[in-house]
Amino acid sequence: MLIGIDASRATTAQRTGTETYSLHLIRALLDQGTGHRFRLYFNQAPAPGLFPKSVETRVMPFPRLWTHVRLSREMQAAPTDVLFVPSHVLPLIHPPRSVVTVHDLGFQYYPQAHTLFQNLYLRWSTRHNARAATRIVADSEATRRDLLRAYAVPADRIVVVYPGRDESLAPVTDPQIVDAARARYGLSTRYILYVGTLHPRKNLVRLVKAFAALLGSLDSTPEHRADGTLDGDGELQLVLAGQKGWLYEEIYGEVRKLGLEDRVVFTGYMPEADLPSVLSGALAFVFPSLYEGFGLPVLEAMGCGTPVVCSNVSSLPEVGGDAALLIDPLDVDALAGAMYRVISDEALRDKLVERGMEQIRRFSWRQCASQVLEVLEDAGRELG
Length: 384
Description:
Layout: E1 2-6, H1 17-32, E2 37-42, E3 56-59, H2 66-77, E4 82-85, E5 98-102, H3 106-109, H4 116-132, E6 135-138, H5 141-151, E7 158-160, H6 175-185, E8 190-195, H7 204-219, E9 236-241, H8 249-257, E10 264-268, H9 275-280, E11 284-287, H10 296-303, E12 308-311, H11 316-320, E13 324-327, H12 332-344, H13 346-359, H14 365-382
Parallel strand pairs: 1-2, 1-4, 2-3, 4-5, 5-6, 6-7, 8-9, 8-11, 9-10, 11-12, 12-13
Helix pairs in contact: 1-14, 7-8, 7-12
């Protein structure tokens, strides 16, 4: 079977969740699908070494509307047996047998987190995917439920396949390497870390407020110093690592309003090479998102031996399981309290780290690719 894959999102230099999903899943599919031919479609040439030289590729530069114009034209001229779109939308013209991954429907819950154009396009593209795809891969049971509710997609057309994790991520135990990463970003030896886009849906304004409340709790607790340290070896910081997104100014504004400029560090986008060291050096990883289709950063933190605090909504209980402290993301006091517990209770940290190492074993790109390949084969048989 000839399987075509829209690989255009996998070439992005600064990858976020969906681009990371696309890259790792495509690589794993190429490793496993030896009984099939694969053809990858790009709007720009991939970096050398990103994919095996042996794989069949089509590089088709086009200035605008690449998916619906250029990829559609290619599907019309030289259709594949099945087309798979892991991180975007099916082209208007596509083979009768097509599979798409729908990552989340967060725009329905929090439309204010997107521009008007983004909202309109997300609504149209998700509806198009729901109606046109032979099969839909959902990242989580939460996304599957949303698709059933919002678009009345027949249940047998949706398959839940959990994404994998970057298995190269592991605790960095060399203190010199951790110290060097801290120095690059101006971090103290005591910090709580968030990794992700600075975006309203990530709930970072409440996180900043909760951090201010946490500092207040430390100031009023006799066993802690008034500067907010736990053992006197550095001021406690909140580190927000990620590129600026829609309405990011509100987060900066809250930091200034609360007078936390010297305690909240914005690193910008953090290269993958630095992520393990910065995660390993953190007291805790906090992910208070209002909605997630999956939540790869939670697994990345667990893989580096970092205790996790995250939201109890959407897919995050599926990802975190009993290995994370789950909190109501709308409750600032609960978020502050959970951070306090993690940074002040060494036994709790150790328990969360141990459970995290167990939890991440449930997720691998090899397993994800195997299940997605079954979906592709199933779609290929449907009209065959």
